[in-house]
Structure formats: C-alpha cells, structure tokens
Amino acid sequence: MSYERIRLESLKDKVMTAEQAALLINNGMVVGSSGFTKAGDSKAVLPAFASRAKSENIKITLMTGASLGHDTDGKLAEAGALSKRMPFQVDRTLRNKINAGEVLFIDQHLSESAELLHNKNLPPVDIAVIEVAYIDRDGSIVPTTSVGNSVTFAALAKQVILEINTAVSEDVYGIHDIYQAEDYPYRNVIPIVAPWNKIGRKTIPLDPSKVAGIVFTNMLDSPADIAAADPKTTAIAKHILAFFENEVLLGHLTDRLLPIQAGIGKVANAVLMGFKDSNFYDLTMFSEVLQDSTFDLIDAGKLSFASASSVTVSADCYQRVFGNLQKYRDKFVLRPQNISNTPGLIRRLGIIAINTAIEFDIYGNVNSTHISGSKIMNGIGGSGDFARNAYLSIFVTQAASKENVISHVLPMVSHVDHTEHDVDILVTDVGLADLRGLAPRERAQKIIDNCVHPDYKEQLQSYFNRACERGGHTPHVLEEAFSWHLRLADTGTMKK
After folding, report:
1. Model confidence over 302-313: pLDDT tens digits?
2. Which structural domain range is residue 315 located in?
3. 41 and 63, same domain (yes or no)
4. Residue 382 is assigned to a ligand binding site
5. Mind telling me the catalytic residues?
6. Is-annotated flag, keyword Zinc (predicted)?
7. For residue 226, is it within any domain?
8. Widest CA span of the chain, in angstroms?
9. What is the four-CA torsion angle of 181, 182, 183, 184, rounded to 10 degrees?
C-alpha cells in the first residue's frame, strides 16, 4: 500500500479494507459521498456497502454531488440499500426503483444541496465517503477529478471515510480551487470576476479526528459515453453557431463571446466542437463538467480557460489530460459545486448557458426531467442554476423522435422545470427561436414557425389558433393541452 500518500503520521493506523469501512455505515444513516457525473466517486466503500445490503436489511439516505460511476447507484438500488437519494442520478436501475416508489428521490438544483446542509435544512450527514489523491501533512485532503459537495461533507459530517485512489497522480494537487462561503448572515461577496480567478486553497480542510477509516483503491473513473454527432445534433450546433455569429454582427457579443456553460451529452459536445472551425477565439467556460470537447478546444487553441466542478471524459481523453497534466493545469480549475453553480456568479460573469430539454411548449416552458409528466429520467442537475441567471439561456432538443411519433414541441409541457420567464432561446434540428422581448402570443408563433417538425406544424398551429379564439394572455385549449401525451399513450403516436 502507498502509505506515503498519508502524510499525517497519526492517520496511518486508520487503514482498513473496503468491507471493514462499509461496516461503519449503519442502517438509517445519512451518507455523503464524493462524485460528480462519474468523476471522483467512491470506488470501493459504497459498492462494499451494496454487497452487504444484499444479506442485511439496511438502508441509507445517500447525498452526492451528482451521479456516480461504475454502476454504483445501480448496485445500491438493486440491493435495496437506498431509502432516499439526492440530488441527481442517471442510473437505469435506480431510475426504475424511483419511478416504482421504492426509493425516494429529491431532485435539487445542484447549487443548493450544500447550502441546505449548511443552513441545517437537511438532516445532518452521519458519515462521508470521499475519494482523494492523498492526505496532506495538516490532515487536509487533495480531491481527485471532481470537487462536488466534498468540501461541505468534509466540514459537516460526523465521521469521514477516505478512499485514497493511487490510480490518480499526486500531480492533481493545484488544479482545485477550494473555497467555502461563510454561513448566513455573515456571507461575503465571492470574489470571482473571471473564470480563471482562483480565490481559495488547494486542499479541502478536514479535522483528522473525524477520520474513521482509510481505504486504498486503484481504479480510474468510469469513462464518459461519447456519442458521435448525428445529423440532428449537427443541425442544432449549426443553428446555435449561426445565432452567435449574428449576435456578433449586431454588436451584442464579440468573437470571444462570454463564458460558456454546456450540459453533458452529445448535443453539448456537438455544439462545442462546432467552435473548432468557427471564427470565435479565446473562449472561456464557466460550467459544471468538462468533457472531451473542452480539451479538444484547448488543444485547437480556441478555448483559453475552463472552470467547472468535475472532469468527465473518455478513456483516451483522460490519459491525454491526466497523463500530461503540466500542459493543461493552467487551463482549467475544479471548484465546489456551490461555487461553480452559484447564481450570483452566473449573473455576474454573463454566462451563455446551453442545456438540453426533453420537451418544450409553444410558450417556452421547458421540461428537462420527466417523461409524460410523471417518470423521472435523470434530474434537473445544474440547468436551473444557469437558466434563470444566465446572460443567454438556451435549451435544445430534437424536434421529433422515434420515427417522428413523438413531437418534442407541444401545446403544454407535461412537467415544468424551467418556466418561460427563464428561457431566451429554443433550438431544434429544424431551427432556432429567439424569444427575447416577445409576448406569449409572439413567442408561440415564433416557436411554431421555427422549431416544430413538419409533421406537427399544422397540428400545432391549429391548436394555437383555436386557443387564441378563446382569448387570454397565454391562450390554451385546456381540454386538449395534454391530448398529445394521452394520444401517444393510447395509440403510440402524437399524430392525429
């Protein structure tokens, strides 16, 4: 074992196996774990707890930064080890348990979990499991590929289990900016005025007396699933880039744009990769997750700096970045998610936010979390943090899917995550609707004209025309508002 990674001598007798550490977690506990979109998560202790739960009647409430890798959420859900989960997930097994009512899920804005814990509006964390590269001489810890909520867990948890991952180089020291805002009512200004500003320390403070166990691991993060751009995502990217170019011509933006936030997935990657062959340069990011496209743009000389809370990349990109960290360490920084996602900074920096919708309606309300109004997919993530506070709030989705039996532009969304007040631009593969400065009736016509799949345009125009005949500031035919979802459930298509 690499005991040299424990630089505080008094902690070396805390080393144990993952199975021994899992025994420290008792039934009914609130557990906080590092991990943000597969990066920097528990690789041994939580899986060991899942194995234990297969033969014991034990359940926990699990808080993380975002989703976990290595099928950990699925293993915990399958073993019946979860009573409640927050604030985000992407695992199919866990999703099915949530939708069946077997696991309670709290879908939170990612900026809020730490705040709620500090404000004592959530139950206190009994024990935290945090992945680190090493423990420094003062007992502070160096996180690995994410920060997430680890700073808060380290500060507030009654006990802490540390997973020292020897697969991660100790050279990650220095890529993190660890800053914790003061509790209310003594909170001060967070002094970040540009994405590259570093305002905190390089390690997470931790009281050594709280360390209950140390487990060694040697396992890389689950690699990101990088899907190649397809005709629809390519079309969406082209619409967005053309919009940006026009904003420059109008004098609203420069060729450097403003700091960009992009959600995860192939649409975000397609949009970001579109910048490679554009006239834009010296770009910056202030986001949540850095993906392959981030480092591709850095290598292409298009992106000068990126700030986020985690690095979630493919296996090849991981080796490129962390195997050559000296090349990249002055190009990016990882922060706690209640800093990367804090609304005040998003507003101050003038973020251009690009996020994905499941569906949106003719007035610009966006559903990014639920299928047919009731079944959760993943969660709102950080999209709400950015949408309401961004300089530009952009949502994207395909116009239709499943051989066009589903329209993603509807009379009324079946679940609202982002109201029309928080949405500036809507984009599908068909086109783009700029909703700024438009009243509801104007918004509806703009969306129908620009974003709707041809198979549904006449149908949606008919709905809107008949709604307008009834009157109202935001006209609707209420008895038909959800008829498209009902028709899909009954007949297998939204088409009349």
Report:
1. 999 999 999 999
2. 231-491
3. yes
4. yes
5. 288
6. no
7. no
8. 77
9. -100
